[in-house]
Amino acid sequence: MRFASHVVLCVVASTLSTALPAPQEEPSPTVTLADGATTTLPTAASTDIAVAIDQLEQLANFAQDEVNASLEDTTTGKRMQKRGTCNRKTLAVRREWGSLSPKERKAYTTAVLCLQSKQAKTPTSLVPGVRSRFDDWVSTHINQTMTIHYTGTFLAWHRYFTWHYEQALRNECGYTGYQPYWDWAKTAQTGLEKSPILDGSDTSMSGNGEFIPDAGNIVVGGDGLSEISFPAGSGGGCVTSGPFKNMTVNLGPVSESVPGGGTISNGDGLSYNPRCLKRDLTDFVNQRFANATGVVDLIVKPQDVETFQMTMQGVPGTGELGVHGGGHYSMGGDPGRDFFVSPGDPLFYLHHGAIDRTWWIWQTLDKKTRSGAEGISGTGTFLNNPASPNTTLDTIIDLGFSAGPAVTVRDLMSTTDGPLCYIYQ
């Protein structure tokens, strides 16, 4: 199935402003923890980046403490009974890339390369371009893009997608760790190419692409939509160093934004189209749309899931890409700037680890409301076009040939209450 590229442009069709919103500073409220202790949390993001980084750490620590306490009855010291089998002994802890040891980082990238060497499960009669297990995830995302973005399943679908990718690395490729995440706030401070995650070393996720001079701006929009323009990054060509320097991207593009404006495609993106992995690391986008102030603002300001998920993805007409679009356009390149094919860059899964972590933190601020029916909003189609039924707790999430079984949204509203069992550090 092929989707017209102008539909995808709705994701970022807005005018670009040059400064983050400046929320008013408010007193921090006192919050009672699950174990009965009290703490104070920020209610507004500081525009001082150093302070905002501290706020983000405080919110993350609160979420971790809340979940840990919820897994144990502190009055008796006994583990509480959950719907699944999750307890503090079985709990997985996902960590930021820079906190991993060099050995742990290499173990992760080795497992990704292993997945890229294994045979695909998706039949080539359905997706002619698949060549590996890694491609199974890419093809699933291509086929479902228009029903998993700006929909009621956006958050839960990507949570399950990333979790199953983690499980494949562990169960099929011998990885003993857990899915790491990309802390956008840190790379916004250090610069992408100077961060452990993207410095191009053998313990990184590979680095930038070869520099292409005189590249024009990336222009998103048009077709009756207002345009958003920002500079190309500091690369643009094939990745030349690190674990993925010889990687082949097999699927796509479908709607890849390119320097100078416009998009390029290879039909529906499902045919075989081997090419190098390209990156165009763009500090401007990271610092503008995914710095600490923006992340904290996303966590503390929205009081309902509709506002939260729309702000995260970028509300059309507001001049915002959101942290979701901010991460994708920060990595740039091919397939990073293609919302259909973006899982073709292994960095995708660290980006969506961070997306899931942000949702997880936000949920813990009002767990009962945000992990139940009131924590869902939207329908089953991109911006409800065409009109479709509302997403509910009973809506099915099916990852096709990449992984299974199919589950309901209900199963994915918590990282510890259903089949999932992990937190973030």
Topology of helices and strands:
Elements: H1 5-8, E1 30-32, E2 38-40, H2 49-70, E3 72-73, E4 78-79, E5 92-94, H3 102-117, H4 133-144, H5 154-173, H6 184-190, E6 209-211, E7 218-222, E8 225-230, E9 236-239, E10 248-249, E11 256-257, E12 263-264, E13 275-276, H7 283-289, H8 292-300, H9 305-313, H10 322-331, H11 333-336, H12 348-364, H13 367-370, E14 396-397, E15 407-408, E16 422-424
Parallel strand pairs: 5-16
Antiparallel strand pairs: 1-2, 3-4, 6-9, 7-8, 10-13, 11-12, 14-15
Q: Strand-residue fraction?
A: 5-15%
CATH architecture: Orthogonal Bundle
Number of helices: 13
Q: Roughly how much helix do the residues carry, as a percent range?
A: 25-40%
Largest sheet: 2 strands, antiparallel
Global shape:
globular
Distance between the termini: 39 Å
